[in-house]
Amino acid sequence: MTTRRTTAALLSAAVLLVVAACGTDGGQEPTSAAVTSESATAEAPTSGAPTSETASADATDDGPEFPEGTGRQTAENSGEWDLVLADVRVGEHDGYDRIVLEFTGTGTPGWTVNYVDEAVLDGSGKVVELAGDAFLDIYASGTTYPESEQDSYNGPRQFQPESGGDVVDVYVAGTFEGYTQVLAGIAGDRAPFRVFALSDPSRLVVDIAD
Questions:
Q1: Burial (0-12, 13-18, 19+ Cβ within 10 Å), 104
Q2: What is the rounded distance in angstroms from the CA atom of residue 168 to the CA atom of residue 172?
Q3: 116 partner at 20 to 30 Å CA-CA among 83, 123, 169, 193?
Q4: What residues contact 99, with CB distance under 8 A and at least 6 apart?
Q5: Any idea what DSSP says for residue 192?
Q6: How sure is the predictor about 51, in pLDDT bands with cuts at 50, 70 and 90?
Q7: How far apart are CA 179 and CA 103, in angstroms?
């Protein structure tokens, strides 16, 4: 009887050690449910911090000059239609505020970006409540759905950047028929903006002039 009790106690101690070791593994961080979906209105919006704190890592002055007006800007994508949204971040820079959409994949995103009177989701026509006085509607083309949920964008659907300057609210609508839509609320009047792409990794950059 004593031998059986000793053996049971040793087995229990071993199980506790294994559970404790699993609980202290810091190699992974919790992720939220996938946002990118066939319909941009499949899930209710959530709030929180962006996947990355700011877009300061994307600082560059290699972009085009800011236009004088505030009209629509478009460009065609190139390469494979294999871009999957991985991150959305916002940062304040000298003279402008920057929104960055980062993608996995090998293609180069195209875009359609313009100011709209209301923040409306593609596909459903649902109006999104955004903070701000002006609203930018950002579409990245050449995008697709991820092969698995693990490859999906796992940041918040809606967030208010802590260091976004005049970019005061962002809504990540998701991917619909080859286009990924992000809506941004801007404080103040409609300001000139510029749009361009960066590579390694593939990114779509939208700068709003101060």
A1: middle
A2: 14
A3: 83
A4: 55, 88, 89, 90, 136, 138, 167, 170, 182, 184, 205, 206, 207, 208
A5: -
A6: very low
A7: 12
Mean pLDDT of 71-85: 95
Q: Find tokens 């600082």 and name the residue.
A: 59
Q: What is the mean pLDDT of the chain?
A: 77
The residue whose two tokens read 């071993």 is 14
Q: Reduced to 3 states, what is the DSSP secondary structure of residue 5?
A: helix
Bridge pairing between strands 202-209 and 193-198 = antiparallel
Give residue 19's Cα distance to chain centre: 35
CA atoms within 13 A on the CB side of 157: 19
pTM over 0.70: yes
Q: Which of 50-64, 157-171, 194-208 has the lowest mean pLDDT?
A: 50-64
Domains and CATH numbers, the chain: 56-209 (2.60.40.3500)
Q: Cα–Cα distance between 205 and 55 in angstroms, integer?
A: 10
Identity of the residue numbered 74: T
Amino acid sitting at position 144: T
CA atoms within 13 A on the CB side of 183: 25
Residues 89-134 have pLDDT tens digits of 999 999 999 999 999 999 999 999 999 999 999 888 899 999 999 9
Return the exposure string of 6-20: e unless at least 16 CB atoms fall within 10 Å of the residue's CB, then b: eeeeeeeeeeeeeee
